[in-house]
Design brief:
Elements lengths: L14 E9 L4 H14 L3 E6 L3 E3 L10 E10 L3 H14 L17 E7 L4 E2 L4 E2 L8 H11 L11 H10 L6 E3 L7
Antiparallel strand pairs: 1-4, 1-5, 2-4, 3-4, 3-8, 6-7
Helix pairs in contact: 3-4
Bound molecules: adenosine-5'-diphosphate (ADP) and magnesium ion.
The site of magnesium ion has 2 residues, from strand 5.
């Protein structure tokens, strides 16, 4: 076997990713705070920033239960599909059940979406990145702008701040209100 040379080690490439967190069942504020801790418990995930929480009316679904939403930024050595599977694993720990073949959206104890993974563009059965509906949703764009306003969207080639401003210009109406984390932070 050839001796190991400096530079041979594959090492780890660290990638930036944005995760959308949402909940409208149980104690949503507490669930999202706990899920954010679960995310950072993975040895390959490093927290960068968590937005403040927002109380938002359900979009594209009929429900009387408003959501709590936030966006977290991480740095990670996980490839995108491994990151998605890890997020789904956390969803399941909180009792989230994916009903195969069910159309539309349902109330959920925890929804974790991979919004962005560097400027990767991925589209297959399992994963679409950037998340296809993120730029139409105030409950994603408002917290995302709080933590990553200058990030460029890979499709739109505009900053998140500009995309949000355009949503406001188009008078997209989705009720959303800022909240505080329960520990006051
Ligand atoms: P939504 O988050 O849009 O309300 P769901 O959480 O019910 O919808 O959708 C989960 C499904 O979406 C999973 O089967 C997952 O494989 C797929 N999916 C595709 N792209 C993504 C993504 N970027 N983040 C999370 N789930 C995704
Ligand atoms: Mg989801």
């Amino acid at each position: 076997m050839a001796p190991i040379q400096p530079g041979d080690s594959p090492g780890y490439t660290v990638h930036n990713a944005a995760i959308g967190l949402g909940s409208n069942l149980g104690n949503p504020l507490e669930t999202i705070q706990k899920a954010w801790l679960d995310i950072q418990a993975h040895p390959g995930l490093f927290p960068v920033a968590l937005s403040s929480p927002y109380h938002s009316e359900p979009v594209d679904m009929v429900s009387s239960r408003w959501f709590i939403n936030a966006v977290g930024l991480v740095r990670t050595v996980l490839p995108p599909r491994s990151l998605l599977r890890f997020l789904q694993n956390i969803e399941q720990r909180y009792g989230r059940r994916h009903v195969p073949g069910q159309d539309g959206y349902d109330d959920r104890t925890l929804d974790l979406d991979l919004l962005l993974y560097e400027d990767a563009v991925i589209s297959d059965e399992e994963l679409t990145v950037p998340h296809p509906r993120m730029t139409e949703r105030l409950f994603v764009m408002v917290p995302l702008v709080e933590v990553a306003a200058e990030l460029i969207h890979p499709h739109h080639r505009k900053t998140m701040r500009t995309i949000l401003r355009d949503l406001h210009k188009r008078k997209v109406r989705q009720k959303i209100m800022p909240r505080c984390w329960e520990n006051g932070s």
